[in-house]
Design goal:
By secondary structure, this protein is of the alpha+beta class. Helices cover 56% and strands 10% of the residues. It is globular.
Length: 197
């Protein structure tokens, strides 16, 4: 009888951890939403300002081997993902941009590249969701002890690995996104990505 009870406890542990992870993530997402709630400009006004700031003069979009990094600009690089046939998109200065409208303005430049295909990478809104989740993960991994503990629990990795991988945003095609990541990005998109009316 005791063995059965012990077995059931072990079997239920991953479910308990998964529920805890989901709750922790939702708390973090809701805290971010609450912080953004006090804005006074309309979405259209915010986006217009962002487009003035991030455009062809300030965003450098290039293909690795056919262009290069430019200092003082936001750099978006299309590159071949190792050991696959897929092309990824790397945005090196992603942590500098925390405003959703500014993310959208940068991504409007990124999608003009011939390698971009909505069916492969998703909409600008979906890519924004990846960016928001990326910045949130980095902020939590470098934040308070409670935030760092939450990130370790959610990711199941060591903090130096999480921080290192979150320093640069990689936008992956759908084929390279796990089901768990896809669900997370869909939740972030639903809760945090503004769409014009």
């Amino acid at each position: 009888m005791e063995m059965g009870t012990s077995h059931n406890r072990r079997k239920g542990a991953p479910v308990h951890r998964a529920v805890l992870r989901a709750c922790s993530l939702l708390i973090a997402l809701l805290m971010t939403a609450a912080a953004a709630a006090g804005e006074t400009l309309t979405w259209e006004e915010r986006l217009a300002r962002a487009r003035e700031k991030y455009n062809t003069k300030t965003v450098n979009v290039y293909v690795k081997g056919q262009g290069g990094y430019r200092r003082g600009m936001i750099n978006a690089c299309y590159y071949r993902v190792k050991k696959t046939r897929y092309i990824g998109i790397n945005i090196r200065e992603s942590l500098q941009i925390t405003d959703e409208a500014e993310m959208e303005a940068v991504l409007e430049q990124v999608v003009k590249n011939r390698y971009y295909n909505e069916a492969e990478y998703g909409t600008i809104s979906f890519m924004k969701a990846q960016w928001i989740a990326h910045n949130m993960a980095h902020n939590m991994a470098t934040g308070t002890e409670q935030q760092r503990a939450m990130v370790r629990l959610l990711a199941g990795e060591e903090l130096p690995d999480i921080i290192s991988s979150a320093e640069v945003l990689d936008l992956s095609p759908y084929a390279l996104i796990t089901d768990r990541q896809l669900k997370l990005y869909q939740i972030v998109e639903m809760l945090f990505c503004t769409k014009a009316d």
